[in-house]
């Protein structure tokens, strides 16, 4: 394991991100979005980076979380803690069902199944507009309250989300470093050998889906509470594409790479959209560059920089020792 991939370093980097964002960014909404999508991308990383499953179904769970927050808060005034709990449970259950069907096929057929599920859930949300609001979405999603005070300020809600981000990041660190996580890596490297040893491969894949779906749904609910709306676009398959792009840009070999990927994508989108309306063309060039020259993403670039720095430090030490 690379020194930067140790649990202590990863936790310190996550904590530093939470503390530095308010000083680096002027927009509390943008900073909060970075933390929310960092959670979601880290959950996607559990499937792609650790299990080797390229899923286009992450938008299902994200959209499901937004609708849970929208419906429960605007129509039944359910307390926010219960709303988030329902989003996590329902996201995990739906992800279990989607994973159970999808993992019956491998390769491109698995990808097609997850994409088909994404399209199916999108049209379900579009069709049942009485529940989801259709094209208009669900408006008026309220911010949570703490001790009677509404977190209507952007930085107040940022602190609320930051707690969830740190907890989820720590949980995923524990999961990926456990026997369960090491087994997922074994399945990714050689699924046939893992099955021959006796591991229940299908069960491990379904469990990875469930964990990823639960966290993604939580991110969707937090995002709906942030922007005050549960839009139809949140369950569109383009959301799945965006999450996958963030994962690939950051690098699927490290959880903190997910944070870097989410931050880079959102900051680049925010900057380029002001410069040029067709900013997606420039983003496409960035993705081509990453695919050609940075196959391990931004995190791989950081690791190479750290290794080069460590080698330079070793050079003078060796010369001093020779003297």
UniProtKB/TrEMBL annotation:
GO terms for cellular component: plasma membrane. It is found in: Cell membrane. GO terms for molecular function: branched-chain amino acid transmembrane transporter activity. It is a multi-pass membrane protein. Its main location: membrane. InterPro entries: ABC_transp_permease, LivM-like. The keyword Transmembrane helix applies. The chain crosses the membrane at residues 76-101, 108-128, 155-175, 208-230, 242-267, 279-299. Keywords: Cell membrane, Membrane, Transmembrane, Transmembrane helix. This is ABC transporter permease. It comes from Thioclava dalianensis.
């Amino acid at each position: 394991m690379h020194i930067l991939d140790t649990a202590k370093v990863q936790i310190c980097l996550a904590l530093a991100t939470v503390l530095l964002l308010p000083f680096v960014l002027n927009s509390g909404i943008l900073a909060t979005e970075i933390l929310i999508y960092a959670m979601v991308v880290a959950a996607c990383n559990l499937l792609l980076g650790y299990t080797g499953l390229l899923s286009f179904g992450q938008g299902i769970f994200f959209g499901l979380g937004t609708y849970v927050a929208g419906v429960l808060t605007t129509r039944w005034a359910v307390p926010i803690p219960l709303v988030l709990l329902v989003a996590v449970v329902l996201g995990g259950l739906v992800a279990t069902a989607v994973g159970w069907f999808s993992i019956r096929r491998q390769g491109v057929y698995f990808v097609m199944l997850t994409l088909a599920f994404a399209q199916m859930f999108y049209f379900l949300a579009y069709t049942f507009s009485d529940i989801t609001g259709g094209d208009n979405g669900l408006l008026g999603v309220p911010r949570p309250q703490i001790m009677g005070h509404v977190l209507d300020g952007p930085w107040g809600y940022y602190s609320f989300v930051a707690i969830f981000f740190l907890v989820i990041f720590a949980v995923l660190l524990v999961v990926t470093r456990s026997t369960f996580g090491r087994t997922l890596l074994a399945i990714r490297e050689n699924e046939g050998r893992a099955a021959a040893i006796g591991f229940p491969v299908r069960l491990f894949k379904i469990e990875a889906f469930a964990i990823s779906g639960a966290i993604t749904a939580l991110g969707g609910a937090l995002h709906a509470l942030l922007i005050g709306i549960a839009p139809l676009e949140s369950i569109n398959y383009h959301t799945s594409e965006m999450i996958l792009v963030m994962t690939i840009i950051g690098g699927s070999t490290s959880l903190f790479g997910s944070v870097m990927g989410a931050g880079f994508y959102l900051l680049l989108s925010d900057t380029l959209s002001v410069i040029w309306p067709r900013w997606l063309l420039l983003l496409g060039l960035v993705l081509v560059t990453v695919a050609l020259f940075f196959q391990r993403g931004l995190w791989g670039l950081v690791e190479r920089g750290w290794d080069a720095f460590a080698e330079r430090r070793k050079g003078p030490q060796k010369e001093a020792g020779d003297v």
